[in-house]
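Format notes (please read before filing issues)

Several people have asked whether sequences and structure tokens are stored in separate files. They are not. Every record keeps both together, in the order shown below: the sequence lines, then the token lines. Line labels are part of the format and must not be stripped during preprocessing.
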Amino acid sequence: MSQDAITPGHRSSPENPRRARKRVRTRGQRIRRAVLLSVLVLAIAAGGTAYWLYSRLDGNIKGVDINKALGEDRPEKLPTSGQNLLVLGSDSRAGAENKELGGGGSVSGARSDTAMVVHIPEGRSKAVAISIPRDTLVTRPECTKADGTEVPSAERKMFNSVYSQVGPACVVKTVEKMSGVRIDHYLEINFAGFKGLVDAIGGVTVDVPQDIHDSSSGLDLTAGPQKLDGTQSLAYVRTRHGIGDGSDLGRIGLQQQFLFALLSEVKKQDLLGSPTSAYKIANSATKSLTTDEGLASLTSLTSFARSMNGVDPASMETIMLPVAYDKIDPNRVVAAQPQADTLWKAVRTDSAIPESAKKSPATGG
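Then the structure lines:
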């Protein structure tokens, strides 16, 4: 056969192999380009989703400018005083969720249902929580409402009324005046937020100290370990008819016990291993949270939380502000002296709290 003959299916042109290689290379480039484009789209989508999630959580947090509201008339911040947080559990009935909880349908306004000064010494390896009974009679200092209205000082005011009458900044000022302790940060969580947080972590197990049958809240528990959901937990920390003498003092022990159980449960959660759970918990924790301006962003709040990783909830000490029954109204209490002054001095100076400062004449038993 002549060399010029062409075998069927075969092209002898020297340009054909180059064209074939060019077609193969072009196809490969197209595949790589498609892969890169897909990765780019996924990266943009993931980044957009992350930004949306961050923005949503960040937008959940409400801030109160405590420093601006209180001005310079505040206790001095001592270099060895550690960190002091005022933590309030608010029984606000604002919003549909809150109205459905704790008998909200028949109660108006808002009160600081639970109040704790959490002192974190230098080094942040331990902490102490001091509960202030809501029925404590205090001298409310002169304060300014959020709308600029001046409210004069008043004596013999129930501590929990300060929140509803004047607002959170005045609660901080009241605590600072009665204790001489500079409050660094303010944290407030309302009914719905508390319930949502407990449900988000799957419930909290507490060791119920005695049978509790509270017809007012519907709480019905037997003594011993019990895993409580959000609604039960809320009733547990608010019950006052089901334990002790029916006063606020009787439930403070339950509140402190539950706080430790809640913090311990949050610490046990595998948040890094479950991003979905982490977001659910973060969303529940932030959407009903109010803080001072210094913590009113996800970045600031996260940074502060990380700085407290060394604090073990199991080692946290709980103390009720020493109080005595008021001589005029036995349904109210007043700070017991000299115990209260000794307690606050130890907090101010970041020193050990004497045992004598932990004993309260009024126990609520």
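For reference, the curators noted about this record: Confidence is low (pLDDT under 50) at residues 1-14, 93-108. Residues 15-60 form the longest helix (46 residues).
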